[in-house]
Input
Amino acid sequence: MSDSKSTMRNLTPGMIIDLLARNEPNRLIGAAETEQVDFKLTAYLLSEDHQKWELAKDVAAFANKYGGVVVIGVESERQRNEIADIATAVRPIRKALVDLKQHRGVIDSWIYPRLQGVDLRWYPPYAVEQLGVLIIDIPPQEEANKPFIVRDMRDPQAEFKGAIGIPRRDGERVVWDTAQDLHRKITRQPIVTMAAGSGAGSALDRATTRVNQMEQLQEWQAEPIYFLQAIPPEGPETIADFCSFVRNSLVNHSVLRPQGFARRWRVKPEAFEEGWVTRTRDGSIWIDPNGLLTQGLLASEDTILGYYYNQNRLEGDTLVLHPIALVEMTLEFFRFLHSEIKLRAGRGSWRYRVLCRRFRSQGIRLPAGFPHQKKVSIDDENLRLASTDDWDRQFREIGAANRDAFEALKRLYALFGHSGASIPLVDSDAVSEEQLIKLG
Output
């Protein structure tokens, strides 16, 4: 496959697997190595102990963080002014040189405790193909099983041969825990989980923890993010059909406009802390076993919330949110909650939460009313700057998805000093599904 250069961009493991499954490997070119992505040009040569150690080290490093993928058959290099290696060419390897059974054996025997769900797959998958890209897919692991230890330090550069080590990903690098790190892990107190009734604090505390974890997982700590949360009342720790139907609904739930802003993220849900997560660069949805639902959306010039108005935007310029995108994404959050989650939770009144982080310092603005095609002017008094960086508003459910969506949007628009009358596609204090569908 031909060489190419491209601007650095981050791809999640799910996005990489999706591109390979669609037979579009060249779209990996320009992708950066991250905490969840590692590119390798050649396969591990498992006839040597050093290479077995390399495989165990790479896999355990992902397992000790958030999971990830090792992509074998992709050339990468560190380009000028970049902090991570970038994929520069796809060079499929000979399948006959790789014994998948031996790879699984090394992963099982060299890492303790045993990892769950590690998968090795060829792309293309067909046996008749002599060349392919190999994916080692390491899913997120249970926190209770961490850390994962490489049993035998046979790396020629290792200072203590025969000792154990705990690798983990730090950005695009693999780092090793120090003696102090190991001591803290050995002597630490049991971790309190977020399960209902665990004594881990109030439902709101647990919800805030989930927002912070989503930021960290998505590497959004310095970005402007719009969060929506649905906080369930006290009840069962696991809602009905959580492990089967709820997982599938993340991909299969029908939206009002298949080609609209809220088209579902067609990526494989990932398991995190017993919950399900689906995520792209634009946004993420996290469902906990008790029904706690968290959605985060990134506000930037090339995401859903920044559609159209920010074309050719320069760094540091104000960023204009698209009102229709806001309304549609908010409505679909509540439609998904009511149709897929609340019916299975089978209990009383829910609490909803609207959070916006770093909107003022990042120059986020929102126009009032229905958007028009001409460019908005910074001098327009209806194009208002967010009033704070830390916006957190809550309310009790009204009872219907479109009415709950309107109540959430009222609190979002208040961040910009707009009244509920400024929200487009609204009829009788509810977001109008009919008006939204008519947009086409």
